[in-house]
Prior knowledge:
52% helix, single chain, Arc Repressor Mutant, subunit A, 11 helices, two-stranded antiparallel ribbon, mainly alpha, 2 domains, Tetracycline Repressor, domain 2
Amino acid sequence: MTAVTAGASARRSTATDLLADDAAAAPDVEPTNTVAREPAGAPPRGAEPPSARVVPLPSRPPVPAAVLPTPVTAPSSPVAPNTTERLPAEPAADVQAGRDAQAADPQAADPADASGPGRRARRRERRGPDLREQRRLRTREAIIDAAAELFAARGFDHVSVLEIAQRAGVVEKTVFNHFPVKEGLVFEADPPMRAALLDAVRRRPAGESAAAAAGSFVVAAVSQLGSPAAAEGVAEMARIIRASRTLQAREREILGALTDTLAEQITLETRASAGELEPWLAANAVMGLYSALLELARDRVLAGASGPELVADLRARGRRGLALLQFGLAGYAKRP
Length: 336
């Protein structure tokens, strides 16, 4: 749900970061209150929309320097360096002919060589990201690496920003330029799950409630936290978060913000008036299911469990929780 750093490699774990991906590893969770059939030609029911195919990856690897785009260098000039020799001037007749041709057919001119703001923009596109952006990305990843190593070794509360800066080889101000608050080294300010969760609710089929769509999404996502690829990052970040009251409080704040966002979406769809409790209750029920599954996944992984059996167990428990949740909300916010 929220991105967190993970491991000595200091990569962002997905103990709470659910990243939308095109992989199909996330299991389908069939809502229990879908009553309408999809129209002919619609995609099969088992296929989730792209935003709901969520795979909690174990970590986000740093950006290697080798894969960063390299700016295209300008071709070498035929003029020898350290000389005053000049290129031969174009004949005046050829220059005038070129101008006449451009005036007759403006589209014939090379856009990259045309005058005006477009010329600079197109040249920049051909060069790719500039060197400053490459350095910024490398610095950011170095800071994340250093923070994760220190957090894993000594805990979040016992590591200072100055120590992180020294380990990363930068000054303290640079760390704050990338991460205004220390908690930002663990949790993303805007969790990737937020947009994907809302998209799953917006794209639900006719006959499915908002609670069913959101609940199915979180069950499919959290069940993947038991996979071998994710388990190591989940376990390490569970230890870091549970050892820090500061991080626990920040995680609760993020969960609360996600709950409010989901409630606002349901309010918008149902046109609920101010003071109506149903949107807020539905959103809290879904996020309560998410929190319970997340803590269960952390407990099981910390106990050494992982693999297909754990994934299946999390999915089954999530489905039972979703069915219980929908018993009282099955008819609420159902798409006509």
